[in-house]
Write a structure and sequence with these properties.
alpha/beta; Aspartate Aminotransferase, domain 2; Aspartate Aminotransferase, domain 1; 7-stranded mixed β-sheet; 3-stranded antiparallel β-sheet; globular; binds pyridoxal-5'-phosphate
């Protein structure tokens, strides 16, 4: 069986050192924020080349906190892609703002900038692109589109830790605020829920730090109505070890993607157009005969996934909100997209096996 993602195999060499540091932490009892969280925040901001990083409980909260930190008027409009994980839309609604959907580019994981331009109006206060599957949206171009208008850019980097744009700038240092999920299956994942937010603005940094800690910097002084969304200290210990391996793992993902790009030649399979320096959180192909293809993968013992089987306007919880709206490029990914294994620890022979089987479908 070729597993979709083998986290144990990926991390097992790190376990001994992680256990040692966890034992130290248990002895010290430094369980809420503390040194390990500070250290991870420093390490992560250095990794992204951003001035500040603030750990939080998960990637959904990271988005919600980032939006709340802007202090916008209720129902201000936030532009988000129609193809993304539910959290991107839910965070907007939970921050009392209004999500407006934009279709992806044709056969691409990310937002269409032409469509984006058309949907900007006086009520638009935030643009929230998603670097879906690790493919980087051109934030510099969005800044140009925004021009002098007071519209903030928050990029959802949940799937793009370590990716760079066309100018070799690292995701997490380009937009006004950037948010990351550190869910176990992500390119950088904890052993439970975790998230982090980066920014170059001191003002946003100070707001965000307060919001994630019940509105407080000093014990019992609650200056704003915040959330309890601190990054768990045990997770920070694990993440400090795992961050050291991220660059290498991303490189391995890129190498596998390059093989797939070059060698998958079956005309029944269509590939998506990824950005040049993507970190391939997922490698998604478009297959018209999806059901048949999935049965074939099952028979050949290759695990697969769907990311995501519903576009945002097709989710049961959001159907009414976006009634009558159509986003054909996003719907196509939802209907025909199949994520094939891109586990950085796949062996060469496993990659060759996957390619051969796909070509014989
Ligand atoms: C694009 C995107 N945004 C947000 C999230 C939410 O992150 P979390 O699951 O850590 O809350 C995820 C991850 O699942 C994601 O893939």
């Amino acid at each position: 069986m070729i597993k979709f993602f083998d986290l144990y195999k990926q991390d097992k060499k790190l376990h001994q050192n992680i256990f040692k540091n966890l034992a130290k932490l248990f002895k010290k009892g430094d369980f809420i924020l503390g040194n390990e969280v500070d250290k991870f925040e420093r390490n992560f901001s250095k990794f992204c080349k951003s001035k500040y990083a603030i750990g939080c409980a998960n990637g959904t909260d990271a988005l919600t906190i980032a939006l709340k930190s802007l202090n916008l008027k209720e129902n201000s409009e936030v532009l988000i892609p129609a193809m993304t994980y539910c959290s991107t839309a839910f965070s907007v609604i939970n921050a009392n703002l209004k999500p407006i959907l934009i279709d992806t580019n044709f056969m691409s994981p990310t937002i269409s900038l032409n469509n984006l331009k058309k949907k900007i109006n006086r009520k638009t206060k935030v643009i929230m692109p998603v670097h879906l599957y690790g493919s980087v949206v051109d934030i510099k171009k969005i800044k140009k589109i925004v021009n002098k208008r007071k519209i903030y850019i928050i990029d959802d980097c949940a799937q793009a830790h370590g990716a760079t744009d066309n100018n070799r700038k690292t995701v997490g240092s380009i937009a006004d605020i950037s948010t990351f999920s550190l869910y176990p299956g992500k390119n950088l994942g904890a052993y439970g829920d975790a998230g982090i937010i980066t920014t170059n603005s001191k003002k946003f940094y100070l707001n965000i730090r307060k919001i994630r800690n019940l509105g407080s910097e000093k014990k019992f002084i609650h200056e704003t109505i915040g959330m309890n969304s601190r990054l768990d200290t045990l997770q920070a210990v694990i993440l400090n070890h795992k961050l050291k391996k991220l660059k290498k793992l991303n490189k391995q993902r890129r190498n596998i993607a390059r093989e797939y790009d070059k060698k998958i030649s079956n005309t029944k399979i269509n590939k998506l157009d990824y950005s040049k320096n993507s970190v391939y959180h997922q490698y998604v192909i478009i297959v018209k005969e999806r059901k048949k293809f999935c049965n074939y993968l099952n028979k050949n013992k290759i695990q697969y996934g769907f990311h995501y089987p519903f576009a945002i306007h097709q989710l049961k919880s959001l159907k009414n909100l976006f009634k009558g709206q159509k986003y054909p490029n996003s719907e196509k990914i939802a209907k025909y997209g199949v994520s094939i294994p891109i586990d950085p620890n796949l062996t060469n022979s496993q990659v060759t096996y996957i390619i051969n089987k796909i070509n014989k479908f």
